[in-house]
Amino acid sequence: MKLEISIDGRPTKLDEVDAASVHEIARGLYSVLYGGRSYEVRVAGNGSGWHAIVGDRSFEVDVEDPRNAEKRSKSTLVHKHQDVKAPMPGKVIRLLVSEGDEVAAGQGLAVVEAMKMQNEMKALRAGRVVRVAAKEGDTVGAGDVLVTLSRTGLQTCS
Length: 158
Description:
This protein folds into two domains: 4-61, no CATH class; 69-151, CATH 2.40.50.100. The chain has two helices and 15 strands. It has helices spanning 16-19, 69-77, and strands at residues 4-7, 10-13, 22-26, 29-34, 37-46, 49-54, 57-61, 81-85, 90-95, 102-103, 108-114, 117-122, 127-132, 139-140, 145-151. It has a five-stranded antiparallel sheet with strand order 3-4-5-6-7, with no helix packed on it. A hairpin with a 2-residue loop joins strand 4 (29-34) and strand 5. The longest helix is centred in the middle third of the chain and has 9 residues, at 69-77. Residues 71-79 and 153-158 have low confidence and may be disordered.
């Protein structure tokens, strides 16, 4: 699994050794081994978002599962951009859009083959394709960005 985190607004990479040391013990409770130290992390959500609690410190977090677009759809709809990501490791078989294309909600954007099945990645909302990050034939990992959409009618900065 590929973990992407930001600390104080700065993207921070976790390598596979770090990522492999995160284990869910119970719903919302994780054991994290990092830098030779063990941490107990509680993750809880409330009306204002998600928080990770480590000892007496609380951190605002954004929890996203790249394999489940349905759970992300409501939060994604309010953001200016939507990154359409590969749900699992695979190969990009077909791109159905190009940069600058207008797309409708539910329209297919790319087809990724994983475990001998073809999965069509679809737009969760209407918008304009601002970036196609993958090429046909590319091998992608779970969570890799395939296509980025902007909301229709919003100006984007490139």
